[in-house]
Amino acid sequence: MYFDLPLEQLRTYLPARTEPVNFDEFWKETLDQTRAFPLDARFEPIKTGLKFLDVYDVTYRGYGGQPIKGWFLMPHNHSGPLACIVEYIGYGGGRGHPYDWLLWSNAGYAHFIMDVRGQGSTWRSGDTPDLEPDGGNPQIPGFMTRGVLEPRTYFYRRVFSDAVRAVEAARSYPAVDANHVAVLGGSQGGGIGNTFLSDSIPHFADFLVMQ
Questions:
Q1: How far apart (Å, rounded) are the C-alpha atoms in residues 140 and 161?
Q2: Parallel, antiparallel, or unpaired for β 110-114 and 67-75?
Q3: Total domain count for the chain?
Q4: CB contact burial 95-106 (16+ within 10 A = b; e otherwise)
Q5: What is the domain-level CATH number for residue 166?
Q6: Does residue 1 belong to any structural domain of this protein?
Q7: Radius of gyration of the chain from its Cα atoms, rounded to whole angstroms
Q8: Is the pLDDT at 83 greater than 70, yes or no?
Q9: What is the pTM of this model?
Q10: Residue 107, pLDDT score
Q11: Is 110 within 8 Å of 191 (Cβ atoms)?
């Protein structure tokens, strides 16, 4: 394997950042507006035939107070609060079915999967529409340019807000150890997870980003 820097430097490397002067204020205002709506996280148990897991159909309120879907899976027999992994899905995919997400719960963790609004049309079905309230612009197929002409209307402003609320929803569940939560994602999901490394997004105790 080849690296640009020695390992000891990579462990502490932080890239240079170029941010608009109002970057922190923008995200603080966005999250304040999002949190003005009750989280209203609902975990509805569903029957799946899985003997060793408990599965819940989740709905919580994300950006604009809009309902966001998800799955929550956890070992059926456990003692004490569980560490939880919140997973964000790659570009174009949705939450699909509970059977698509058996790894982490079978390994003994609680596992919260956030459905990405407006997606699920490419490789796994989704259940959350993008109820876009802020206006938009013509776009190429896909989501990367939806509302991109103005920061307040950009698609990922809504997605990142949903992602913060997903962590809050997972931490609200009584069986979750709120001090031991990690976020996980690949591709788009990894990018969403990395928003938690930004100074504008509140950090959580013992937070870990996995890609």
A1: 23
A2: antiparallel
A3: 1
A4: bbebeebeebbe
A5: 3.40.50.1820
A6: no
A7: 18
A8: yes
A9: 0.85
A10: 94
A11: no
